């Protein structure tokens, strides 16, 4: 088979974070498993947070995460960049700084190893940009290509961020636009324009490093990154963990150009339906919203932005700082005392 004619996305059924197991299935399994008890384990999987955190001493906590998925683009170098940016994001969401990374690679025999090299080089470039190092990894033969990283980072225990400490009166800031899963689905069907594809790639390859750095010396009460469970899924985890209600203003959301158009055409990733099935009973729409915008709210994101819960004055300072890095950050809602349901959308 001629590698020049092979599209990476033609080798996969689902791509990016849309390939994640749906939240209903995942939570059903995790609820049946015992949790580990250790006085130094600050954050485990029982809180649905972005990474685990283990305290080494009074001044150092280690953050560990792993993330990999099938390609959502055909360019192997760009795929490597996106997968690495996505994996690194979990450390930033916990308030940490990445230090080391290990490659995870599944690679089919039908592809030339030059493609493997390009994927790994893309990951290398983003890890280097993060100021971390790649120190090995693991590869297996697999008909479906997949790539990602195991990442280790560090933070002071007093500076950790979790998804379960949002406070009443906080506003919510989102640092990247929505609609990534829908746009990737459209791209797989060769519907997107070159301009749309360029913008989509820019969003997915942008590290959340810069958003995390812009929170320095600001009060951030809670944080998570928006990936496979969509905006509503990750907001629901924050609301439930914090025992609050999150109110989202749909008119304040920034959407990637083309996302509403493709959603209205039914170009929807399968993961959106998994998210909707699990989350619809946890969500109240309190005003009329178009169906395509509802789909985008549940759309699985790949290498999405950070969602920050913080006082409004700090949020405004954060937005001012972020202007140097990207035009995407927006205040999209607020945190309220619990009102019978985790998520409200107007």
TrEMBL record:
Function summary: Synthesizes selenophosphate from selenide and ATP.
Residues annotated as site: Important for catalytic activity: 20
Residues reported in the UniProt entry to bind Mg(2+): 50, 90, 225
Stored InterPro entries: PurM-like_C_dom (IPR010918), PurM-like_C_sf (IPR036676), PurM-like_N (IPR016188), PurM-like_N_sf (IPR036921), SelD_I (IPR023061), SPS/SelD (IPR004536)
Signal peptide: none
GO biological process, one term: selenocysteine biosynthetic process
SUPFAM superfamilies: PurM C-terminal domain-like (SSF56042), PurM N-terminal domain-like (SSF55326)
Gene that encodes it: selD
One Pfam family, short name: AIRS_C
Cofactor note: Binds 1 Mg(2+) ion per monomer.
Catalytic activity: hydrogenselenide + ATP + H2O = selenophosphate + AMP + phosphate + 2 H(+)
Active-site residues (renumbered): 17
Segments forming domain PurM-like N-terminal: 49-154
GO cellular component: cytoplasm
Name under which the protein is recorded: Selenide, water dikinase
Binding site for ATP: 20, 47-49, 67, 90, 137-139
Domain of life of the organism encoding this protein: Bacteria
Enzyme class per UniProt: transferase
Domain PurM-like C-terminal span(s) in chain numbering: 168-337
Upper classification of the organism: Bacteria, Bacillati, Bacillota, Clostridia, Lachnospirales
Molecular function as annotated in GO: ATP binding; magnesium ion binding; selenide, water dikinase activity
The enzyme's E.C. designation: 2.7.9.3
Family statement drawn from the similarity comment of this UniProt entry: Belongs to the selenophosphate synthase 1 family. Class I subfamily.
Cofactor: Mg(2+)
UniProt subunit comment: Homodimer.
Keyword vocabulary terms for this entry: ATP-binding, Kinase, Magnesium, Metal-binding, Nucleotide-binding, Selenium, Transferase
